[in-house]
Amino acid sequence: MTPRQIRSLLKVMEVGSVQRAARELHLAPSSISAQIRELSAELGVALLEPAGRGIIPSAAAQQLLPSLRSFLALSEEISQQASTIAHEPGGTLKLFAPSSMCIYRLPALINALQASAPQVEVVLEHEPYDHIEAFRCGELDAAILVSQVESPEWVNHRLHAEDVIFVCHPSRHQAGAITLEQLNREPLITTEAACSYRVAAEVHFRSQGLTLKPRQTFSNVEVIRRCLLANMGVGLLPRCAVEDDLTKGSLKHQTVTGTPYPFFSTLVYPKGRSCPPKLQALVEVCRG
Fold first, then answer.
1. Torsion region of 181: left, alpha or beta (phi above 0 gives left; psi -120 to 50 gives alpha)
2. Between vectors from CA 126 to CA 277 and to CA 236, what angle results, nearest 5°?
3. What is the Cα–Cα distance from 252 to 169, expressed in whole angstroms?
4. Which band of pLDDT confidence, cut at 50, 70 and 90, is reported for residue 277?
5. Calpha distance 237→200 (Å, rounded)
6. How far apart are CA 194 and CA 184, in angstroms?
7. Under DSSP, is residue 29 helix (H, G, I), strand (E, B) or coil?
8. pLDDT by residue (tens digit) across 23-77?
9. What is residue 126's predicted lDDT score, i.e. its pLDDT?
């Protein structure tokens, strides 16, 4: 007994004609007739009877009608459940993010992803890591990047404005905006030379005929934050990394002419690549 046989029988019982049922189901009349004969033989009862130039359901078919409808409804429910399972987000999602995003942006995103797609396991990479080569080799599903421009190579889903600012201990803070020349007299603490924050600052310094010469360089923004709390200098960090400290007053935003440097965080993945359910689940979380 198959759902297709039941569907054909119910349609013939509804319209009173094999030919009309065949047209509505987009099947050949011979196929409809064969299905009903096979079902009748399996059940051991006649299902249709001639009536003049047409046919009508047999008494047996009338008695079986509620069960036949239940059978068909159940088969359709099972198909829908199977389709949902097949498309339910699951598997390993390989994601790259710089340390600032790992610490200050990703926890909320991952928490929301776990709620909406609990079968997805996030495997996280952070710097130093060549995400471009990983994309090229198919070893990475997506990345959260912090930049000033969107790359045409990627599908881009913008997340947050990420202003990059100079920050210091309250005892080191100077009222009002200071110049780059004044800033350069302070012990500066920055991220590594290749970091986009550092690059933006270096461009700014060069535009004023100056050279950025940091006293300390660290790849991890949390290390820089700890140094600032210990009053070791003036640091260059995305605002999200020190938002709580600024609110509490344990650190101060040192206003510098020509800053903050405007950045934004973006979820990216290569154009032309399919977006599997596990990645689509993350995209929906980011959009929300």
1. alpha
2. 125
3. 6
4. confident
5. 12
6. 20
7. helix
8. 989 999 999 999 999 999 999 999 999 888 788 999 999 999 999 988 988 888 7
9. 83
